[in-house]
Amino acid sequence: MTLQAGTVRVSRRSVVLTLALMTVFLLYSLLPVWWLLVSSTKNLSDLYNTFGFSFARWNLPENLDRTLSYHDHVFLRWVWNSVLYSGLGAAGATLVSVAAGYGLAKFRFAGRGALFAVTIGSSLLPGALLALPLYLLFSRIGLVGSIWSLLIPYFVNPFCVYLGRVYAESSIPDELLEAARIDGAGELRIFTSISLRLMTTGAVTIFMLDFIAIWNNFFLPLFMLNGERSFPVILGLYDWNRQVLQSQDMTNLVITGSLLSVIPLALFMISLQRYWRSGVLMGSLR
């Protein structure tokens, strides 16, 4: 009985400690969002002269109007560019990752282990390290400044190829593929009619991760794109922030634009919530 009582006490302590740590991490994650929300409601004077986490005079409508209308509505163009780059890039990366992961998981060929090891190793390289080599490569073939200088690198994501293999191994039974082959189905038909449908949850999870990564990518657009009208929103806000340091104080526009840029990602994740939850669970169980 004493041992059981002691075990219960240890278990309760573990639960309390876990909840306390989760609360701390939750506050740590939400505080910047709260600061962003509060700061976007202030005018420039209150922004510098009042406490950062408390409201002052309500100036949000004016900030929104200035942000959305500034320089011929360029912010809306940046948001559209981000949606375009992220949507097309994530769609291409998802198709490549699912197909490559399926091939690594379900086909036996010479060098498969080495190819998978190279894939894992490539996923460890930071994206910022590859920005300059990619710029030099695309400048040689004349694609710098075009949308393809972004989309082609976005289509290849080694980490998502790894996830594609994990989802293929866990969701597609080998017996089902053998039965389809016995019935005379070709490999392309098996992949498009059977495998893709069984990997839907994993594919949506990969799409979501790619979409968010591309939306937040900074260095590749910084190297590849020329001209304000082609910027994604993250690069456009950086350009506004440079003007804060050089010529005029646009801090209100930067803060309000940052808040607005979070909203599409939040809506995107909420809309795909039932897919990515089960997809992440599938990957963790594997």
Question: What does this molecule look like?
Answer:
This protein has 286 residues and is mostly helical. It has 2 domains: 1-28; 63-285, MetI-like fold, CATH 1.10.3720.10. Helices cover 80% and strands 0% of the residues. It has 14 helices and no strands. The protein has helices at 2-39, 44-49, 60-106, 112-123, 127-140, 148-155, 158-171, 174-182, 187-198, 200-215, 219-224, 233-246, 251-271, 273-285. Helix 1 crosses helix 13, helix 3 packs across helix 12 (233-246) and helix 3 packs across helix 13. The radius of gyration is 24 Å and the shape is globular. The protein starts with a helix and ends with a helix. Residues 1-8 have low confidence and may be disordered.
Condensed summary:
This protein is an all-alpha fold and 286 residues long.
List keywords for this structure.
286 residues, mainly alpha, MetI-like fold, 2 domains, 14 helices, 0% strand, globular, disordered N terminus
Low-confidence stretches: 1-8
Specify the CATH architecture of the largest domain.
Orthogonal Bundle
What's the number of helices?
14
The number of domains: 2
Average residue-wise pLDDT: 88
Rough outline: globular
The largest pleated sheet is described as: none
Briefly note the CATH topology name of the largest domain. Answer: MetI-like fold
Structural category is mainly alpha
**In percent, how much strand structure appears in the residues?**
under 5%
Report, as a whole number of angstroms, the end-to-end distance.
Answer: 38 Å
What would CATH call the homologous superfamily of the largest domain? MetI-like
Along the chain, the helix and strand elements come as HHHHHHHHHHHHHH
CATH class category name of the largest domain: Mainly Alpha
* Number of extended strands: 0
> C-alpha Rg, in Å?
24 Å
Helix content: over 70%
